[in-house]
Specification:
disordered N terminus; four-stranded parallel β-sheet; alpha/beta; about 160 residues
């Protein structure tokens, strides 16, 4: 890949502790082989059962080398884990109502450039949330970088 702003982003879903390795190769080896700059991993259901805990988030951050961890509709399943949303790198869907723990946007400063990760959730067959497209438009107005990655969690894509 050539170009100053063309960066390779890996997005992988880590669902279980035993799956924190991908094809027997650690994420650090992928980062070196493919010159990965940013790693975004969906941590939804990384805890036993579903949801995310401080323990499973730590495994994803430390073992997989995640720069950002996204979540989805089970982000608040583990009420004892609400404190993890104080971390800048763990984001919940942005279209959750104001007042919910956490944020739906993470801006990563890589020195020579910035990248934004926006997390949204669909509403078909799911909780009645704000319209994700309206929320995305409002977020995109204020982002000061052309490098934007959007994670979208949904039940239906048609």
């Amino acid at each position: 890949m050539k170009g100053y702003y063309e960066k390779f982003i890996i997005y992988r879903r880590c669902c279980r502790k035993k799956r924190l390795r991908f094809s027997g190769v650690t994420n650090i080896q992928y980062e070196k082989k493919y010159s990965v700059d940013i790693t975004v991993i969906n941590g939804e259901n990384s805890a036993q059962g579903n949801g995310i805990t401080a323990y499973s988030a730590g495994l994803i951050k430390n073992n997989c080398g995640a720069d950002v961890i996204t979540t989805g509709n089970h982000c608040y399943k583990r009420r004892d884990s609400l404190a993890i949303y104080d971390e800048e790198y763990i984001i919940r869907p942005a279209n959750y109502p104001e007042g919910c723990a956490g944020r739906g946007l993470c801006i990563i400063d890589m020195g020579s450039y910035k990248a934004a990760v926006v997390n949204l959730m669909g509403t078909v067959y799911m909780e009645p949330l704000d319209n994700p497209f309206t929320v995305a438009e409002n977020i995109l107005k204020d982002i000061g970088t052309p490098n934007i990655f959007c994670g979208f969690s949904c039940r239906s894509n048609c």
